[in-house]
Every structure is written in C-alpha cells, then in structure tokens.
C-alpha cells in the first residue's frame, strides 16, 4: 500500500509541475503539504454511503448472489433506470434464512447519499439473469429478472420502479427470452420461449395503451427447449425489407441444426420458417458450430446453410461450403454470401460467386502447420491447386509465414495465418490477387457470453 501511495503521489507532483511550467493561465494557486500530495484519492461521499448500506446487508447474514447468465453478471450494477442522467445501483444477494432468499436491492442517489428505493425478492435458488429495457416508451427502463426456481424451471418477472418501489408487470415460466422492437414502433417487446404439452412455443408480449404488459400472440416452434438449451442460441436480427425477427436455433442429438424464424405477420407472431406440408421448420442442416448472423455487414441476418462440395479423390474428407441466406417475411431465402469455414483453425474465406461449383478443397497437416488448398480442374480433368491458406504455430512460425511466396494474412498471439498463390492461379480466369485474398480472409470471432437470458 505504501508503495502504491508513493507512486500515486509522485505522479501527482509531476503533473502539477508540468502544468505550472507550461505557463497555463487561469490555474488556481496550490498550497499543499507533502503529506497531502501523497494521500490516496477518496471516493465520492455518495459511493461511500452506498458501500456502507451494502455492508449492512452483508452483516445481516446475506451474501452476494450475482446473476449467473446473460451480459449483466456483476454483484453490484450501475444503471440509469429513470432516465434522469444519474445511475441507480442494483445489488444482488442471497439470504438463506428468509422465506424469499433471493434479493435485488435498488438504491437511488439522493444528494450525497444513496437511498433504498426498491426491493425485488424471489423464492428461487438463484438469480439467473437480469436485463434493463424501456418497454412502454416513457424513457424509464423496466427490470426483467430471470429466477432459477428449480433444476428444470425458470421464472421470468418484469418490474417497473415507481414511487412505491418495484411493481411487478409480468410473471411467466420460461426457458429463454429476448427483448426487441418487433413492430418498429420504437418500443421494446418481449419474446418468451417455453415448453408446453405439444413441445416448444414462443409468446409475444407488448405494452398496451391502457397500461400494462400483455400477451398478444403465440407461435409454434420446431426447436425443442432441450435442443435450445444444449448448444442452441437465440439471435436478434432483421430480415429483408427491414423486418425485425428473432432467429431460434437448436442442436439435435444427431448434430443437426434446426432454425425457427419469428417475426410479426399482420400484427401476430409467426414462425416464417415452417413448412406448409410438414408443419416443421424448413431450415434443418448439419451443425458446424455456426449460427445466424450478419455475415456480410449488410444489416440483415443470414442463416448458415451447408452445401457439400465434391471430393477430388475417394480418400478426401468431406468438405462443406456455407451458403448464407437472408429471408423475407414469406420465408423465401436468397444467398447473400458463400464461405468456406475452417472451424478447426479459426478462420473463414469469402468465396467469389464465380467459384461456385468450380472448386475443390482439401486440408492437410505437417509439423506446426495446418493448410487448406483450393483446387480447380484443368483441361484434362486433373486437379490444379491455385491457393493455399495455412495456420502456423510453433517457435519458427515467423519464418515459415513468409517463406517462399507466402504473404501474411493475420498475426495472432500463438498462430500466424499466411496465404500463397500457387501456379494454377495465374492460368485460371477466376484467379485472385494477394489483396483480394487478404480482403476475403477473416478470423472466426468467438462471442463470449455467460449465457442467454
């Protein structure tokens, strides 16, 4: 502590000296003792008071119980709930001796102190998630709390913070939910997924003019809640014609991906991915760890659709091209982009349209190197390699990455990615330049989230 204080004091002395020597006008005169200069900065008074109130709760037998999933997982969270520019503090606790052990305290800043202005209690075993969104368009954020009520049961409650504390607006069982403006009116709506007797169902909630959060409609899902929980994902996105949508992807036990697409049709929630013949989703493909996303940054959400490429020989491992399809509200899909995803090595490559049905891809290994080679067919039908992309590791990776005609694509802490235009590239009318290869190459970005709401 003494060493930290000394460093802080020296830094402050140096900063003051620079300011005085620079001749800045209008500076106040400083009169401070050496002891003052070495003092650590104090917290503002209101934060000190907040800390005292939290310590009182801990002293009563409570313990911190931060949300376990979602993006808001701190034990104490600062959020401007009422839109006044000042932040409220929400603190999350468990007091096992109480009838409702899970507690969320809301503190609001009042002059130089924080006062408790709300208390939300739950009888579950944990606080699963927390989210803050304006659902009624009044500039104030409502609080959505997911409680872990039992091993197989979660309960969603939505609260508004008023003069009399936290008032509950909605309570329902759920598995996952998202909050999104589904009808384009500027307000946020709620899409809740849950199980029922027939399987999975999505309930749509919106704010009513007469006040209150009400269920408006429901849509049947193809994705089961077990498939969603295992490796599945909900994605907020947009279809063609700027239609808001929620993409729900589940993963089956046989490594198949099933995607439902939820959007409003004539004001009611509909699953536009359902087949008229089978009543199930038409978007069923092999799962390669990919989910709907805006792959080409056009503002629309595309669904990954694997397409098997032909092998050069019978010994080659199967290779998939990924066609990324955007959809309209009728369920019609259009290819927005084609890629090759090398999930094992963490990169993908945008395939030019002219390469469709004209290329073959093989993957090989050597010491500290995994390489993917792109081929086409020569006039005699023989395979002609024209591009190779390598992921290089090991202590000599810097040398290997620029050996021969290789050029660097990306430098990561433990891996270098390099490409090489092979002899067949010049002879093929659809060959690429080094700059075009660089532009088409991307790393697969891993999205870290502690879990969905």
Compile the SSE list and pairings.
Layout: H1 2-21, H2 34-37, H3 45-59, E1 63-64, E2 76-79, E3 88-94, E4 102-110, E5 113-122, E6 126-133, E7 142-150, E8 153-162, E9 165-174, E10 176-180, E11 189-196, E12 199-207, E13 213-220, H4 225-231, E14 233-239, E15 243-251, E16 256-265, E17 268-271, E18 283-286, E19 303-309, E20 319-327, E21 333-342, E22 347-350, E23 360-366, E24 369-377, E25 383-392, H5 397-400, E26 407-411, E27 416-421, H6 423-427, H7 434-440, E28 441-443
Antiparallel strand pairs: 1-3, 2-3, 3-4, 4-5, 6-7, 7-8, 8-9, 10-11, 11-12, 12-13, 14-15, 15-16, 16-17, 16-18, 19-20, 20-21, 21-22, 22-28, 23-24, 24-25, 25-27, 26-27
Care to describe what's here?
This protein is mainly beta and 453 residues long. It is built from seven helices and 28 strands. It is globular, with a radius of gyration of 29 Å.
Strand fraction equals 35-45%
| Structural category | mainly beta
Helix content: 10-25%
What is the CA-CA span between the terminal residues? 40 Å
Q: What count of helical segments does DSSP give?
A: 7
- How would the global form be characterised? globular
Give short descriptive properties of this protein.
5-stranded antiparallel beta sheet, globular, 453 residues, 7 helices, 14% helix
Write a short abstract of this structure:
This protein is mainly beta and 453 residues long.
């Amino acid at each position: 502590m003494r060493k930290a204080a000394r460093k802080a004091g020296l830094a402050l002395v140096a900063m003051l000296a620079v300011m005085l020597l620079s001749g800045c006008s209008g500076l106040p005169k400083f009169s401070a003792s050496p002891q003052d200069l070495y003092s650590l900065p104090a917290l503002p008074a209101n934060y000190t008071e907040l800390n005292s109130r939290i310590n009182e709760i801990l002293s009563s037998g409570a313990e911190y119980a931060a949300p376990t999933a979602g993006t808001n997982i701190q034990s104490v969270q600062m959020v401007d709930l009422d839109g006044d520019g000042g932040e409220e503090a929400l603190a999350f606790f468990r007091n096992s001796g109480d009838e409702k052990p899970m507690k969320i305290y809301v503190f609001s800043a009042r002059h130089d102190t924080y006062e408790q202005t709300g208390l939300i209690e739950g009888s579950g075993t944990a606080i699963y998630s927390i989210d803050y969104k304006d659902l009624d368009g009044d500039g104030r954020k409502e609080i959505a709390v997911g409680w872990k009520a039992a091993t197989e049961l979660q309960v969603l409650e939505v609260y508004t913070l008023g003069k009399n504390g936290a008032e509950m607006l909605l309570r329902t069982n759920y598995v996952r939910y998202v909050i999104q403006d589904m009808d384009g009116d500027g307000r946020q709506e709620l899409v809740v997924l849950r199980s029922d007797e027939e399987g999975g169902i999505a309930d749509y909630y919106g704010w009513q003019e007469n006040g209150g959060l009400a269920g408006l409609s429901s849509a049947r899902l193809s994705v089961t809640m077990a498939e969603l929980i295992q490796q599945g994902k909900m994605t907020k996105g947009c279809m063609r014609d700027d239609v808001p949508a929620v993409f729900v992807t589940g993963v089956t036990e046989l490594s198949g991906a099933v995607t439902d697409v939820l959007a409003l049709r004539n004001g009611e929630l509909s699953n536009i991915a359902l087949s008229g013949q089978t009543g199930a989703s038409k978007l069923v493909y092999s799962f390669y760890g990919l989910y709907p996303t805006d792959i080409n940054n056009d503002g629309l959400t595309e669904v990954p659709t694997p397409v098997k490429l032909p092998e050069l020989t019978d010994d080659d491992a199967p290779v998939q091209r990924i066609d990324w399809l955007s959809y309209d509200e009728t369920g019609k899909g259009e290819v927005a982009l084609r890629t090759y995803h090398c999930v094992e090595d963490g990169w993908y490559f945008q395939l030019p349209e002219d390469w469709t049905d004209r290329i073959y891809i093989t993957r090989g290994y050597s010491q500290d190197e995994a390489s993917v080679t792109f081929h086409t067919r020569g006039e005699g039908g023989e395979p002609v390699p024209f591009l190779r992309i390598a992921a290089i590791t090991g202590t000599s990776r810097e040398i290997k990455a620029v050996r021969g005609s290789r050029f660097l694509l990306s430098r990561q802490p433990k891996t270098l990615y390099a490409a090489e235009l092979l002899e067949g590239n010049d002879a093929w009318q659809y060959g690429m330049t080094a700059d075009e290869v660089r532009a088409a190459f991307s790393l697969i970005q891993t999205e870290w989230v502690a879990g969905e709401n």
